[in-house]
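Problem 3 from the worked examples.
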Amino acid sequence: MTTLRKSLGGNVRQYGIVGALIMIVLLFQALTDGRLLLPNNVVSLVQQNAYVMILALGMVIVIVAGHIDLSVGSVVGFIGGVMGILMADHKVNWLLAIVVGLALGALVGAWQGFWVAYVGVPAFIVTLAGWLVFRGLAIVLVGVTRAGLPAGFVSISNGSLPNVLGYVAGRDGVTLALGAATIAALIFTQLRTRRTLLRNDLQVEPMIAFLIKVVLFSAVIGALAWVLADSRGGMPIVLILVGVLILVYNFVMGRTVFGRHVYAMGGNLQAAIMSGVNTKRVNFRIFINIGVLAAIAAVVTTSKAGASVAAAGTLFELDAIAACFIGGTAVTGGIGRVYGVIVGALIMGVLNMGLSIMAVDSAWQQVVKGLVLLSAVAFDLVNKRRAGAR
């Protein structure tokens, strides 16, 4: 076991969470008689869980910094309602409605960030109040469902990229090309990062661990592209949106001063203050960021439904928080990775899809997801205690 741990560079959790996702997929693939990975079901999995991945990208930053945000679901419902009213009632161009929604998300984030960063009210209290306020505003504003939204807006979550490259072996050429390009970019960036670390005499993972990681992720990307290419429409537009956000936030958390400050604050707040980190400004930006991401999730959710409803976004915050913790984000802050929360969101999505295909009652689905969340957090805490003992 010690040799295995060393060969993996100490990142047992990193590979374990991906292995858990693969095992869950294989389990439900067997239990559903192969229906889980039918191409159109995979597209539905992406489209139905895009909001979880988007919100989790913001939530992981909040949790790593030592906070929590309970308001994002209500903010999604509120901003989705505003955009629906603009498009359905006032015939505002859907692109302009999205811009208004993003600006409103930034304002909501700034409002909550002000109370957390500059007044010193705990984020739990501020966002709990936001959960009540924005859910109430969503109910007051929307009232009656706004349907008949523009086709361009609806296609964001329900449409696919046009196939301009034809078909390869009967599969969508654009999807296959994007999959190949993604694998090539992954290999290039991983090799460049490893070369940079070696050149600067910094610690790198053993070559066997590096190869396992690259091959594993390349295989997952290739398999996903192959399946999506055989779906009814090919590459979903919303997957491109989520993919771009993942790349951006992976860079932000791993390569920017802001990301380093977030980790520093979550790891040891007093040490971060003593080292000169402007914690108030960082906290303010953290909540503006998740406000904007909640607006993007509102776009995706409203587009998927094709209408604005007052109940939109209900319990979304719990899905995002669960995705973070299942993906390895520490409850105490300071630890969490973008790739981890995406895998956590996919685990939640596969559970939802698999149990739905099996016609399991929604109440029991909640029970299963709750047990998975509890097990993930308990596993993380036990591993840390063992590491501390060693």
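Problem 4, a separate protein:
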Amino acid sequence: MAHLDCSFYSTSLKKNTRVLVFIPTMSADDFLSDNHINYYRNGAKYQTLFLLHGSYGDCNDWTHLSNIERYAQENCVSVVMPSAENSNYVNMAHGEPYLNYISQELPDFLGKLFPLSRKREDTFIAGLSMGGYGAFRLAFEHPETYACAASLSGALDKAALQDSTAPHIAKMPLTYRKAVFADIKKVRGSENDLTVVLKKQITKGVDLPKLYMTCGTEDFIFPSNNEFYEEAKDLPIDLTYMKYQGIHDWNYWDTHIRDVLDWLPLKHNLV
């Protein structure tokens, strides 16, 4: 597995930023098991999973706190992990346009450096907590880019969570939340409300990605996931919701990112 740490100036964000990229390569396990994937053949491309961190995190989280590198190698899928601060992956009201950066600039930049397939059928997005919201938001806004999107313990009902007393939410400085959403009392019904974006795209008749969501039944964010599912389940979308015992922690996310990888239409080979 090639583990690549890229620092570069983003024209969208107007500052330097980082992204980590995993690229499956020949390994000792491949040799010992006679796995004859030709990683270096001309024109070979990788299916790609954009994997988003949660609040208070960065691009290192998935690499340090889960086994995603091993899972990516086993499934022959590249993984892209950008840093997005506490932006919720939106174009902030008073800050950087992270939605534009991740949906447009980042794929263009990485596509020039690495053999990543740009086909929709080979491109997926997932994230945990804040990143779960980000994965669905990006997938709804750019359905032409992603075949599938997955949320793990996602902050999906963003409006309801603004009044949460859970430490994960309440400890976020109010000034930062206002920088993201402008008026946190007006998230419901706005362009930052996932159900609003989803229904608008359905009205337009766009081909939406397949969706997967999972959450621990003891997680403080479990009610928010249930509320989003109740609003979305009868819409004309392909939505899977899996609930397991667990809380808002890396034991849950490391376990269930494997379920996401099993759910994705991975080819386990180069394309």
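Solution to problem 4. Residues 91 and 111 are 22 Å apart (CA to CA). The chain has a mean pLDDT of 93.
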